[in-house]
Structure formats: structure tokens, C-alpha cells
Amino acid sequence: MRRFQTASIPVVLTVFFLLAACAPGPQGTDGESQANDDTPHSGGTLVSAFAVDISGVNELIAPTTAVNDSVLFRIFLHLLEEQPDFTEHPPSFAPQLAHSYEWSEDHTVLTFHLREDVLWSDGAPVTAEDVRWTWQAQTHPEVAWEASYFKDNITDVEVVNPHTVRFHFHQVHPAQLLQANEGVILPKHAWSRKPFSEWRKSRNWFYENRVTNGPFEMESWKQDEEIVLTRNKSYFEEGVPYLDRAVFRIVPDQTSQISQLFSGDLDYITNVPPDDARIIRDNDELVLRDYWSIGFIFITWNNESPLFSDARVRRALTMAIDRQGIVDALWGEFARTTTSPIVDTVWAHNRDIQPWPYDPERAKHLLAEAGWTDTDGDGILDKGGRPFRFEILNHTGNRQREDATVIAQQQLREIGIEARPRLLDISAFHAAVLHGRYEAAVEGMTMATDLNLRYLFHSGQIGVSFNHARYRNPEVDRLIDRADRMKGLEEMAPYLMRIQEIIHEDQPLTFLWFSKRLNAHNRRVHGVQGNLLSQWFGLRYWWLAPPG
Amino acid sequence: MIGFVLRRVGGSLVLLFLVLTVTFFVIHLAPGDPADLLVDPRTPEENRDRLRRLWGLDRPLGEQYVRWLSAVAQGDWGTSFNYQEPVIDELAGALPNTLVLALGATLVAFGLGIPLGIVAARRHNQTADHALRVGSLLVYSLPTFWLGLMAILLFSYLLPILPASHMHSVGSDSLSAGRRFLDLLYHLTLPALILGAPLGASITRFVRNSLLELFGQDFLQTARAKGLSEVRVVWVHGLRNALVPVVQILGLQLPALLNGALVVEVVFSWPGLGRVVFNSLQARDYPMIMAATAFTGFLVVAGTLLADLVHAVADPRVRDD
Amino acid sequence: MMVGGGLLAIILLLTVAAPWLAPYDPREQQDLLMRRLPPGTVLHLVILQGGRQVLAERVERTPLGLAIERRGRWEKIAAEQVLNLTDEGVEDRRYFLLGTDGVSRDVLSRILYGGRISLLIGLLSILIALTVGVAVGSLAATGSRWLDYLFMRGVDAALAFPALFLLLALSSVFDSGVWLLALLLGGTSWMGVSRLIRADLLGLRKRDFVLAARASGLGRWRLLTRHLIPNAWSPVVVQATLLLGDIVLIEAALSFLRMGVQPPTPTWGNMIADGQPDLGSAWWISTFPGIALAITVISVNLLADGFRDVLEPRRS
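Predict the joint structure of the above. Result:
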């Protein structure tokens, strides 16, 4: 955790400009050599695609989707901009609305110093009042922001002067900075006209009365068709954005997106399926980029079910499923197995953990040890008269997970376990796994940068958030509680390591894979930085080579 | 007669009420609710509960029903959980698109059905007739959604001449009105064809059979013997008689058309009522589902009512019902 | 048009005999590297120690065992590993007449088994629809005017439900097994049958032989079963046959929208849905189930036409 000293503004600004100049370069390589110009060129329109439409301009009432963030984070500012430099150390933060910040001695007060040259799109200045009012909106019960729990640790947001704002925390926590920074800053002068109680009925009003302060402005939003962003001419960073306009078209069908990329109707597409990687690579006009996502897919075993309450059984299940084989079959080079919810491209991954091998024989032995044998010769293991048979849930909309379930089912069958896949729609699926009304389920999750394992493994989260496995381990609870009292993410490291070890032994979940995200664009586009924080990260630094 | 009409209308209203009540309870019984769709898995249950309270979902079901009913009686259909706008506005936005689709389908159905029916009647028992009989049977029997997919495969992927989805091309706003209309037609072609074809097939068969029934096998000769021109025979006498039942067919086929529209809209991403309903079902967007059901129920009931009234006008015996 | 009847019979036979006819297990993923293979693919089958099997495009015998080519890459397998080794390599083949799907299952086998499910649901639904429809219609026709009025308004009410919406809603509430779907589909389709029966019976009521039977003091039940229904069943047969076609289509639509039969149980509808993302590249996954569906429904409708021609000759 770095501390920015409250040095004099010019020095800080200089540092800032230096940082801006050395903006993170494009990740993933695939023939990036531009023969001529490497200096950014101003102008042009970038056309890209979303598979679904955004759900609104107001972050607090729009259901959270990655698509929403992609657009909203281009037109609104955060206090700081989280950087995707996640691999070696906890992520760093670059100044955005705030140019610096400092902690109090006891680490319960965080003071931000705001830039004085940021304007809203209607000309009004962005001030500390906006920051405070945003916090009030974020925590208001009638606004009912999904992610308001991030702010639970904040007791007050104080306006010290128009450009200094102070966050007061209840207690020290490793993710305090993230807690303060979560959520974009909203325009008090414009949006406080609408009483909070009416926010959730007024999606269109916010669009019609949109007032933004980010590098881009939203020129128009035609529902289910396209979203058009234009350069904010009064953006405080010199010379950026380079693009005149960024157009996002709604193209639900992946095949259409790819064919439009080829025909030139689209400049940039995301979430390219691995099967299509080759044709894009083979095309000289196109560039394929990839990066490791930190979302992972896993099987949740209901630890409270008599089938899965024994850790030996869960270990056996893991060993009976050929996770590497599944990855090879479904993803090829574009995914890897993982031993932990903190995947190996993240700084806090426990590298000493060795994955459980694919060993059906050993699995059978473990199961026999736990009392599961085939006493009646029907090919299915049983114990105390109960056959090892269960339903494994999936929710609609994800091919790879469905495919993986079917593969795993076959492998389990080979050792005498019968898993019956069942598809539910998202709503029913969620209800089932949250309340423990299931036996096994295939799920996906993205561990956030705060690396809080509490949601997944703390017994207090059963029926509350994401401990769908209903895992109870007092040792793990204790470690999580202690980790949460650390002052910064780095200090959490030893606890995270130990927790990962225990989870590896206990296997409340069977981790399947984490995968690469593939993006593709044509050669005219430069400076593409799509990464795990956003596939449009740093859009203000992207530029188009002039035609010809 | 008036009594008959009043009774039927009154009955229809009761019907509608029944439909809505049953639908209300059925959808609320489905596992999961809109708060579960906040897919961020870390969202604690209390945040979801908070939304439930806001939406009134924490009250007992009976109470929710009464509240909803009284709101509706005052014209307030509520706010969509998913779109956060008044339900009526969302439906009002989607409805015209479905009407456009339905209109297009009906035009296709009549535009193809009537002429082909006439042709089949004229060439009774010849190859054309047989071909048309088989053809219309074929079309009538094919699953709409599969037909839609095959059409997309053929006309959007293999021979890319028609768009695979949506109602407008991107950027169509900047086109002149005339060109926008053409763009709309361009997008409407496949969905309207797919939706209208089965109806068209029914109409073909019906027109053919009606004409033959009215005039016997050699109806042209009969007409000429009577000294009437073919046009008069066919159009004035034939179709006029055949069209009354055709209106009936339309009224009765309305539910099928709506069902078909739902599927076509999903396959072609057509922004109409059917697709809204489908998405709302998955999102457990109760106010939206209820309003959409009310509306489609109303259409169906109105269609049946119309068909019955027409029948009653034509056949007085029915009125003693 | 008894062609239809013939066709339908063939289809029924094929699907009933699916367990014997289908070349492979519809749920078996043959070899995960062999997904989305086009129709007519023939592959070599290599059976390994431990019961695993592997499919390959080319197989060559080497001094130490086998060299096999899978999706463009060559692998070597030692002779001891292979259970079905011969002097030339391996003799066993797998034939995928209609190709493989997204998880390397045989499309042909899935179509045959899928047909069983689809037709089973269809026939069960018809049974339910007929039972309820005939019961309601007869009771309405032979009961008091009040009862008739009540029943028919009930029928109208049932007809007024936007069936697909209701089915969609209901199938998200309940776990959609074969029986439940049959119940739902039958439960939303009986109305036409009951109206028909009622109309016919009302017409028959005035006829001489009925008046005579009533005059002789015959009870209502016997009147119904002995005299009325046997004379009224012909239009019902036509209607029921047409209904079968409709129901098969609706079940397919429901399964297509992922609210009917759930995978991995194959049904023509969900197979078409499975193939939709690959429409451009692996078109066979969606196309063939659709053709099977089409042929089935066409034959059903032809059969209905045939019945109509035979039983109601007045309508040419």
C-alpha cells in the first residue's frame, strides 16, 4: 500500500503526468508491430459490440453487469483508478478525481484531495459535495444499491472544503481503500432534484438528465441498438481521449460479431470463443489479444448433505474428475486448472499447493474408506442403503459449464457415482444454491481484487452470500476474521496462504478452471488495453491509425 | 341480441379476471424472485431483502394480490423490476413492434393464402392443386422456431442477403423516412414470412375448400353457364362468402399467432411484446408479466368474442346459448 | 391420405425401437476431441486398457503399437495399451451418419431417443386431453342447461389463457419431467375436443334413435356410452390427431426455450436449441432434429387429413 504524500500540487501533477505518459501498454502480443507510426493519432470513431444492452446510466439502480461498467466507467470518474497490475502485488491506484490521499495515524480516517479542474458536462465544478452526496445515495435504503455492503465500514463522509473530502471508517480493514473508492461519483446538483424514493422508477429520467465528468460523454443511447460516446472536450487530461467517438452496438449473436469484425463493420469485439481464435489469428488484418481472467468455474458440493459431508468423499470426487482433460477438451490453450479461488496469475496465490491428481483408482479407495462401496452390484456405490446418486445444477446460458457438467458426469459414472445434470434459469438457480436446496451445482465466480475469502468460506455467510457449499470450519473462520483486521492487502497474505491450504485439504468445492478472455480488433486500432478489470480499460488512450 | 352481446362481454370480463388471478399466483410460486437475479454472488442476502421490501415481495401472497389488484383498478400497473420504468411505458414501446410483425405476418398470410387458394380451387385435382395441398400441409406442420433458424441459416449465413435479427439497422435514425421504411421492411421480411406462413397455409386450404364447396367441382363452368364473368364469380360471390369465416379463423387463430410471435421474436431478437414477456418470465419481473398477460389475455378474449359475435350475426341459432 | 398413417407408424416404430436401432448411447460422449463432426464421419475406434476409448481419423500400425491422428495431431500408443489391436491397426469403426454434437454425442442416436420422449409426451397429452375433453363435453351436452353454461364458460376461460405463457410460467415452477409436461400440455389442449363433442352431442340429441332410447327410460350414463359417443367420435378422432401434431410442436417449442425437457435427456426441441450457437459452423446439430420433427408432424397431419376424408366425406 503506497502512500502519496501531500506534496505541492505541481510536483504531484508532474508525477501524475509521468504516470499518464507511461500508461500500461497493450497486453497480449500478437503481431503488434506497426510499421509506421507509434505516436497516437487524434480522431476517428471506434465501433465495438456488446452482446446485451446496458441497463441504465445510474450505477446505483441499474442491475450490475460487466456491460454496464464498461460504459459507465468511461463517462464517470472514480476517486482513484484501480490498475490491473495484479500479478506481483496488490493492485495499485492511479489518481483520477482525487490526485492524492493520506491516512490518519490509526488508519481509520482517509482524506482525499480532489483535483480542482474537473467539470461536469454542464459546466458545474466537481466538488467534495458530490462525493459526500454520492455516498448518501449509495447507502440510502430506498435507492437500495446492490453493492452498498462495500460501504458498511464507512461511518461518515465529511466535506472539509470544496476539494478535500474525508472518509471515516468504523474499523481497520485490508480493503478500506477499495471500500471508499467503490462506485463512481455522481452529480449532486443535477440528480439530487430527483428524490431518492423515486430513483428506482426513473431509469429514463437519469438518461435524459445525464451529467457526466469522465473522459467521454454519452451522446445517445438507443435501447437494444447502440450507445454512442463522444470525447469530453473539457476533460482534464491533456490530449486524451484520442478518439472522437466510441460506438457500442448491441449484437447478441457471437457469430454475427465475428463476421462483422471481418467485414469491418466492427473494430473491436470481446469474449471471442476459443474455437474462433484460429481464424482470427490467420487473418492479417486482425489482431487477437488474450489475458487471463480471474474468474473461475467450480463445482459446489452441499457440505451439509450426507453425500458430501465427509472431506474424503469430496477429495475423491475431485480426483475422479479429469479437470485437465476437461480443460484440454473445451478450451485447449485458453484455460488452466486452478487449485484455489485465488488463481495463479494473482499475487496471493499459494504456489506450494499441488493439485489433486486425476486418479480414479485412488478416488475409489477413498470412497471405500468413507464407507461407499457397491454392495448390490448395480454399478452404483452405496452406503447404508443409500445409492450415491444426486442432481447437479447448472444455470442456462453458459455452454462451457454445461459441457463440463456432462463430461464430469461421465467420469463420475465410471467410478460408480451417478450425477444427473439439471438446468435451471438464473433466478431459480440462485434461490436453490443460496438456501441449500440442492446437492451439487456448477458455478462461476470472480474473486474481487479485495481477495475476501469470507464470502466463499466463512460459516457466517451461509445463506447470506456466497458460501453456497455451507462449509463450516472454525479454523478458517478464525483466520478470515483475523485477516479482516489487517491494515492492507499485503498483510493479509500469510492468512490467505494458510486458508488456501486448508481449503485444498477439505475440498468444499472442486475447482475446475479459469480461462483466458479473448478480444480481437483490426489493425487500425492501437493502444488496446482490455484486461481483467475491463475490456475497455483505458479507452481514453486508444487511438485509430488514419486510413491509408 | 343486445342481451346476448352483454352476456358475452360480461362473461369475457370475468374470464379475464380469472386468467389474471391464476397467472398471478402461478408466477409467484415459481422458485426464485427478481432479487435473486442480482448476480453478483457477494451481495449479501440483506441487500436482496431490502429490494424485496421495496418491491413489496416480503408481504404474504394474498396481500400482494390485493394490493396489485387495487392498483390496477386505478390504472397503475406498477414499475418493472428489470427496466425500472412504468410497466405500461415498456409495454407501449414493445407493442407496436409486435403489431408490425403481426400485420406483416397477416399480410403475408392473406397475400399468399388467398391467391394460392384460388389457384388450387381452379385447378382442382390437378398437379398444382396437389402440390399446393402438400405444400401447405408442409408449411403448417413445420416448427416455427426451427423454420426461423433454417431461414437465418439460409438467408443470413449462407447467402447473406437478409438480416438475422433486430428491427432496424444500426444508425437507421439518420436515414430519411423513406429509407428507414425500407430498412424496416428489410428486417421484417424473414420474421413476417416465418410467422405468416403457417397461417397462410391454413388460409390457402380454407379458401380452396370454401370455393369448392360453394360452387361444386366445376365452379367455373357453372359460373360461365350462368353468364357471369370469372372475376365476379370468384371475388364477389366466392370470397365474400368465404371471408366471413376467415375473419372467424383470424379471431380464433389469434392465440396461436401470439404464441408464434413470441417464438419468432425470441429467435429473431425482434423487440416486441413476446420477447419482453419471455425475458420478464426469466427475470421474474412480476409487474411486467402480469401486465403482459393481461394484455394478451385481453387480445385473446377479444378475438374469441369477435369470432363468436360474427358467428352469432351469421347464425341466429347460436344466440340462444 | 393414409400415406400419413404409414409414415407415422414407421416413425413410431423407429422411435419405440430406438434402444435396438440407435447405433450408440445417446448420452455417451464418444470422444471429446471429436465434437461437432459433420454427417457421414467415420472414425477408427481404439479401445484402451481400463475401458477408455479413443477415436481417430487415421490409424497406422507401428512396430511398437499404433500411431493415431486426432484432429491434425499424431499420437503414439504402445501395443499393450490397446485391447483391439490387429495386424493392420484396428478394425473397429464408429459411424456418425448425422454427425456429432457439441459434446461428441451421436446425433442420429439422439434423434431416435429424442423421438421417443417427444412422442411419449405427445401421446400421453392426447390421452389426457381426450379424457378431460370428452368428459366435459358430454357432461355439458347431456346435463342441465345450467351445467352446460357453466362448463362452456369454463372452456372459454381455459381457452382464453395465453397457453404458451402459462406453460412457460408453469414449467419454471415445476420440475419438468415427462409426466408433468404431458399433464400441462394435455391440460391446456382439451378445450377444442370438449367443444366438438358437445356440439356433436347436441346435434345428436334431437335425433330419433336418441329420443327413442330416452323414451325407453335409458339412464344418462348408458345413453352416453352406448348411443351418443359411438356416433360422435369421428370428428373427435380427426381433432385428436391434429392435436397430436400441435402438441408435439408446442413441446418442441417449450424445450427449445429451455423450459421443457431438460438436457441431457434429448428431445427434438432442446437439440435444436443446443445447436443454435453453432448454426453457422455445425448446422447439422439443429437441422436434423428439425427435419425429424417436421416429418413427424407432417405425417400426423396427413393422417388427420386421411381420417377426415374417410370419416367425413361430405367435406371434400
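Residues 87-320 of chain B form a domain with the MetI-like fold fold (CATH 1.10.3720.10).
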